[in-house]
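Re: beginner question about structure tokens

> Can someone show what the tokenized structure looks like for a real chain? I only ever see the sequence side.

Sure, here's an example I had lying around. Input first:
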Amino acid sequence: MKPVHKLICLPAVVLAAFQMIDVKSIAAADIPDVSNAAVVEAFVDGVVKPSMKETHSPSGVVMVMKEGRIILARGYGFIDVDKRIPVDPVSSLFRPGSISKLFTWVSVMQLVEQGKLDLDADVNQYLTTFQIKDTWPGQPITLRHIMTHTPGFEDSALGFLITDDPARIMPLADSLAKYQPNRINPPGLHTAYSNYATALAGLIVANVSGMEFNAYLQKNIFDVLGMQHSTFVEPLPPELAGDMAKAYSYNAGTDSYEEEKYEIISNFGPAGAMAVSAYDMSLFAHALLNEGAYQGRRILEAATLQQMLDEGFAHDDRVRGMGLGFIERRFGPEGFDNFGHDGGTTIFISHFGMSLKEDFMLFSSFSGPGAGKTAHAFVGAFYDEFFPPDVPVIEPPADFADRAAKYTGTFTSWRNNFSDFESLLRGLGGTKVTALPDNTLMIGPSRYVEVDKNLFREVNGNERIAFQEDAEGEITGMVTDGMGVWQEYRTPFYEVTQFIGLLVGLPLLILLGVLLRLCFNWPGYKSLAGAEKNARRASVLLAIFNILFFILAGIAVSGGLMSLMYELPTLLKVSFIFPILATLAALYHLYQSAQLWRQPVFGSSISRIAYSIVTLAGLGLSWFYYHWNLLGFNYYS
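And the corresponding structure tokens:
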């Protein structure tokens, strides 16, 4: 763990020198040796075992490699709970999710080496059955944009990215043509992680090489490195199926695991379809840490691998961004230079990190409902234990309060949807930034202190966040060190969760009141006539259509976000009829309300005002439907 030192009553220069020299030397003496297998095993066991038990993670694996030597190869739990088959780090297969992308990037760079691909050419020249839309004329998407996650695509996943039905597998080219997302930004401007773009790169590899993508990987990477427990093929080949760590959910009522179907990502396979053993990941790491080769078997030239590390994209040079495919992360002290990738499916959460300076690799993967919590607890703790960062004490600037307000607000990731019903998720998240009385910022769950213009460092850590500003000095977004694929823009007030809650909640209360009044005053409703009855009828229809939408949609998504990944419920699709009806009803209500004001003989002034309030409630909800793409059938079938 990181030592804590409290220093008082020392001159600033002496204090700084003490922090830079003495504290570091003391800390270095306390850092456990990552080359000591017994020490590493004791630490990993101490973190992983209780976490997996607490979070009901049925299987996990950890592989640690230092200077070409495997320090720890440890399996936890069972790949088959019923048969009590333990995890074997050599042969047991886990789903590394987006770590799969590294194999796609290596494939791209192999073809670049051969002169068959140009990183800066329009990708459309490599596509044969469809073309990427020319949304930004004169600004084509290139492989360099794709590898740095700056092509400008919006994100989308619900109902089609992952499935559990092999019958839904289609050729990669057909899938990418069918599910092509909109280009919401010109390429090279904003980072937004894109599974679609990575799958597109895999299709380009297949088109240019003349080989199906999975076959290309098998021949040019897996066979070369001797990776015998690795595949992108789905469903799994029979010879590997018995080694797969099965997917399980956990039933708290019966205290038992329930087997789930195998996750299928073939329609976007190059982005995340891999199944691999921890040992095979160590073979891949051997090559990446040894200038592209292992035991004389080469997958990349040394210069090409260095290019992938040196070239890339960053919004601010003071925070780590993207290499060509590799994510540069903040783990460890300065100079440790962790690079690699993380990955997640609906069942598995995995980490793959390396350091050239330390000749080091860490791979971990955990499954089940507790996979995320276990992975988060383990990965950060491991790096902090064996490669602790330097965290000098920094006092907040005394005048920070004068400019703190410019940073406050909510920020939302560009990795989001902007065209489909899925865009509503954009309004349910975001990072909140608040100014604190001690001249620091609360960014999400952590406190940050200003260390340079628009640059902040975590108070008790080494994470950095750089804010972005426009020519007028207004803050427009922020980027986080070590998360080069995660750029956030300043959220307008009408997309903030609190505003959405008010915009939806208040009108629904008003419309619920309309229905309650109808129930309790049915005779009064029956006695109405003429324009006032038409207006009341319009109010009832408006209330029914809106409330039905929220009831049906609420039931449809009650299973949680993960339940929507494989396929959208029919009930959700049916519910999209009602925003259309509700909007028509709102316009009809506006007309009827206008008639009441034009003919004051009908009803009192109070009733006319009440009808106008109901009209505003209906129009407000219609704007909500329109803005969040709920007005119509905006989803991928």
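Each token stands for a local structural state, so reading them left to right follows the chain. The longest strand covers residues 69-80.
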